[in-house]
Amino acid sequence: MNRQSNQRYAIPRRSIESTDNQRGTDWESFASQARVYLLVGAWQSAHDFLWPRLHPILTLGILLPEEVECLCLLIAACSRLGHAEHRAVAVRLLQGVTTGNIPLSYEPTLLAAHCLAQADADEGNYLAARTRIEGIPDDVTRQASSWARARLALLLGRVELRDANLTAAEQQGLEAVGLAAAAESESLRADAFSFLALVARTRGSLMESSALYAKAARYCWQAGDMAGHAVGLLNRAWTVNQMGLLAEAARLFNESLDAAASLGRQATALRARLGLGWVCAREGDLRNARSRLLPAWREARRLKLPREEGLALEYLAETHLLSGDLAKARVALSMGQRLAHRLAREGDVALEIRIREAMLSLAEDRPRKAIAQAREAVKHAKRVGMSWEHAQACRVLGIAYLRISRKPEAKTAFRAALELLEKMGERLERRVVATWIKVLETPTRPQSAGKAKVVRSTGGGVEKSFDASTLVPDLSGLDAQDDAGLRPKALQFWLDHPLLGPGPWLRRK
C-alpha cells in the first residue's frame, strides 16, 4: 500500500463533507493516548476512551484514512473484552476501507492487516489469515511499533500452531517475547509466555508448559489483567488435565469459569465448560460428560467458534464410544472430521479425531482397520511433533494388535506410549499403559480377580467387572508417588473398561 496520505475512502464527497464538522481532527493524538492504555493492558479504559469518538463513525458507516488506526485499536480492545457485536461492526467497516485500497501509514497498515487476519482465524479460515499476514510489505513490518509487531507475531504463531508447525510457532512466540519486552508491556509479555506455554503443552512438555504458564500468570498479575487471569487459569487447567491430575484440573476449570462469567467472557467460559466435560469423560462419569458437552457444542455453534465446536464433537464422540453408543459416536466423528479438515487438515483437532476414528473401528470389531488408522495417526503425530496425541495413537495401536493376537507388535506400541507419557509427566494413562505391559508379560491369569461381574456397556456408563487393584500386584516401573493426585475411581474405570482396559482382556486369556 502507499502511505502518508490523507485521501478519503471512495464514497460520495457530499456525504463526507456533511459530517466533517461532527468529527474530531486529532486522530493521531487519540491513537497515541489509546496506546498508553493498551500497553499496560487497560483494555476497558482504551475502549471507553475510543468508543465515544468512534461510535458515530460506526453508525454512519464512513471511515477516513486518519481514523483507521483508532478503529484498529478499538477492535483490539473489543476482542480482548469479548464485545463481539461491536467488533463485528468495526471489522466490516475496516474491510470496506482496505478493499478500497486506501493509502495508510505504517502503523495502521499493519494493525488493519492484523485485525482482519485475526477475524479470519477466529472463523477458522487460517489460510486467509496467513495470506493477509504474508501480504504485509517488509518495510511496514520494520517501521511499525514493537507492540503491533508483537501482536502480529502471536497471531502468526497461532496460525502456525493450528497448522501444526510447532517449530515455526515457537519462533513466533520467542519473537513476541522480545518485542513485548521492547514495548515494555507486561500484558503483552503475559500473552507471549502463555503462547509459548501452549506450544510446549502441544509438544507434550507438560512440566515446561506449567512453568511458562506460571511466568505468564506473574505478568498478568503485575498488569492487573483479570481477563488474562481467567485465560491463564484455563490454560493451566488444560495442562494439569493432560497430566492426569483430574481433581486439580476440575478445580482450575471451575475457577476459570467463575472468573470468565463474572467478566462476561463467553468464549473463555465456553472453553472452561468444554474442559470440565472432558474431565468428566476421563473420570468415567459419562452421564455428566454428555450433559456438559452437548450444551457446549451448541454454544460453540451459536458463537461461531469452529475450533471449540470441533473439540466438543471429538469429546462427545469419545464419551459415546466409552458408553458403547457407537451410532452417536459415528455421527459426532463425521461432523467433527468435516469441521477439522476445514480448519486445518494437519492440525491438532484433525489428529485427535483420527485417533477416535481408530477407537471406533476397535469398538466395531474391525481391528485391522483400527491398526491402519492408528498407524496413520502415529505418522501424523510424529510429523507435527505432538507427543500427547502420539501416545494416544500408540495406545490404541497396541490394543488393536492384541485383537489379532500380535503380542510383540502390541508390546512395542505400548512401550512407545509409556515412554512418551513418562517424558510428559503424565500419570493416569501412564499407569494404565504400564498395566497393559505387565499384563502382556504375565504368563498366567491371577488366581483371584476379586468381585467378578459380567462386563456390559450401557448408555449411562460401564459396569465394573472386578477389582482392578488385584490385576497386577507389582508395577515395578512406577514409584509410589505416581499415585498422588490420581482419582482411584478414574484409574479403575480405565483399567476395567471393556474396550480399552487391560482387565477384560486379562479375563479372556
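Above is the first protein from milestone M3; the second protein from the same milestone is given next.
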Amino acid sequence: MKFPGKLLRGIFGKSTAEADLESVDVESVVSRLITMAEQSLGNGNFAAMLVHCGEALNISPENFLAWKYRAIALYETGSLEEAEQCFRKVVELKPDYAQGHYNLGKALQQINRLDEAVHCYEKAVELQPDFAEAHHNLGSLHLRQGRFGSARACYENALGCDPDNASTHLYLGILFHQQGQNCSAEENFRKAIAIEPDDPVALYWLGMLHLSLFRLQEAKTCFLRLLSITPRHIEGLMAMAAVLEESGQAIDAISVYRKALEIEPRFHAARAALVHRMQHVCSWGGLDSEIAELRRAIREEPADALNRMAPFISLGLPGMTPQEQRLCAERYVGLCYQHLDPLRKSLGFGYGQPEGKVRIGYLSGDFREHPVAKLVAGVFEHHDRNRFHVSAYSFGQDDGSAMRGRIEHGVDSFVDISSLSHEEAAARIHDDHIDILIDLAGYTKGMRTEILALRPSPIQVNYLGYPGTMGAEFVDYLIADDYVIPERSRGHYAEE
C-alpha cells in the first residue's frame, strides 16, 4: 500500500528521507499510529487520539487497539453512544477481553441502560474473577436497583480482591445504612475514612449515620471536618444545619440554610427546612416570598434531590393548597422509595385469606413516653381479642418507662425490630401473617416507611401520627374522622 509522503512524515517525523518512506509497510504505519494514540492518552489529548485512531482504522479496519483507543477517547469526551458502539466492536474482536466488557458496561451505565450494563459487568467478572472494579460497579448497579442482597455480595467480592478500596467500603456502608444495619454501616464508613481520611463523601455518610442515631456531637465533628475540606458542599451544609436544629441552635441553623441557598438557589430542600425553622422561631421577614418560591418549585420544577420537600413541612405552610400537598407527597415517594420496587418484587410476598382471628400489626418508633403511645395504648387494650390478634412492631428506643411496659402488656405480641434491616423487618411482619399493618408514624421523625414500601401486608394503613396523605400506592387507607379530613378534602388523599 502506498501512503502520501505528508502523512508518513507526520507519523515518523519530518526528517524522514524519501528512501525511508518507500520501505514503510502497513504494519509499521498502523503500529506508529497506535503508539501516537497511546501517547495522546497519556497527555489527555483525546482529540488527537481520535485522529490517530481514525487514520489507523482507515488503513486497518479490524485493528483491535485502534478500536479500543477510539472507544476510550469517545467515552472521555462524552460521546457515549458512539463509545458504546466502539466498545462493542472491541469485545467482538476479542470476546475474552474482560476490560472491554467492563468498559462497555461503564458506557451503558452512563446512558442509563442498566440491565445491559449489569450483563457486561457480569461477563467481565466471569472472565476475570479478581476484577475488583467490575465487582464494585456491579454492586452499585444492584444497589441502585434495590437488589440489596446481590449488591452486598458484589461489594464483598470486590473487597476480597482489593481489601483497601475506600470506595467499596463506603458503598457497602451506604447499603447497610439504607437497610437500617447501623453497626455494619458505621464499621465500613470508618474503614473508608481510615484509608482516605479527607474523603468528603465518607465523612458525610458517617455524619448522617450519627445524626440518625442522635449522636449530635459525633455528627457535628464529621460535618465540621467535611466543610473544612469542601466549604461549598451543600448536602454537608444541610446536614450541619440539621445538627444545629437538634442541638437547639435554631438561629445558627437558619444562617447555614441561607448559606446553602446562596451556593445553590435551586436547593429547595434547604429552602423548605429554612421556612420550617423560620416558623419555629417566629422569623416572619421574607417568609412569604420563600413559601411562594417553594410552591412554584413543587408545581413547575422537576423532582430531584435538590427539589425535595419533606411532606410534613408542606402541611404547615400558609397558602399551600391540598393539591400541592398531595403533589409534594407523591414526588417524595418517587424520590425516596421507588428504588425499592425491585426488592419488593424479588421478595415475592404472598398473602392468604385470614384464618381465625384477623391479625393486626401496629408499626411505630414511639412505643415509649411519647404522645403517640399515650394516645394509642387504650386502643390496644380495647381491641376485641375474640376477633383480633394484636401485634406491636417497635423500631424505636426502649426508654424503660411505665408507658413502654403498658404497651408491651397491652398487645398479644410485642416485637422489637429496631436492630433489623428494612428487609428483615418486612419479612418478619410477613412471616407473622399480619393481615392489616397500621403505621403510626407517617412522614415524621424516625419513620421507617421503607418497611411499608416492601409491602409485607396485604392491607396497609396510615393512622394517628400523620394526618396528611402519604401519596403512596403502598398505603391503602387512612383512619380519620370528619374533623381531620372533611368530606370536601377527601379527593386530595391517595388513600381511601
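Note on the second protein: Residues 26-43 form the longest helix (18 residues).
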